[in-house]
Amino acid sequence: MAKGDPKKPKDKMSVYAFFVQTCREEHKKKNPEVPVNFATYSKKCSERWKTMSVQEKSKFDEMAEADKDCGPAKGGKKKKNPNAFQRPQSGFFLFCSEFRPKIKSTNPGISIGDMAKKLGEMWNNLNDSEKQASYITKAAKLKEKKMKKTRRKRRRRKRRRRKNKETVYLSPCEYLRVREHRN
């Protein structure tokens, strides 16, 4: 959907978002001609929010709770089809699956991002002949194997469709007889 599409479902607003919205409406009522500078406006709103008491904030809490109750949540993750086509791993991913356990054993507390950086550096340090000799050729073999498998599956599906679509063409008289016989 387009960005300004009125049919687009709206996100649920937070307590602070309701507060900012009401502040903006107040500002527009007081000064309709004055344009709002977002940076200074947001700073003023945050300062005002920090100085507010819990009782004053409770009004916005109620507004947010009421907003949560109306309508289903937007979006959500789609469930993946387990039978969907999955590409075979590339040479780099084969390399990563081989070296990831080695790096983890030498650096037990390493983060995922640092692990990826290290693997990328190691991959870039390999010369092309080493990459080609082991990982890229394995990836090509896996790709070919996967392609053969998918071709077989497609052929089987085609055959099943052909079997199921065996149609018998009847003349109008024969069709009426078969129809009467079924009833």
Automatic annotation (TrEMBL):
Q: Where is this region: Disordered?
A: 63-87, 141-167
Give the molecular function GO annotations. DNA binding
HMG box domain spans which residues?
A: 9-68, 85-154
Q: Which Gene3D superfamilies match?
A: High mobility group box domain (1.10.30.10)
- Where does this polypeptide localize? Chromosome; Nucleus
Biased amino acid composition, Basic residues? 143-164
Q: What is its main location?
A: nucleus
What cellular-component terms does GO give this entry? chromosome; nucleus
Keyword annotations from UniProtKB, A to Z: Chromosome, DNA-binding, Nucleus, Repeat
- What is the name of the protein in this document? HMG box domain-containing protein
**Source organism per UniProt:** Pan paniscus (Pygmy chimpanzee)
Q: What is the similarity comment for this entry?
A: Belongs to the HMGB family.
Name the DNA-binding stretches: 9-68, 85-154
Query: Domain of life here?
Result: Eukaryota
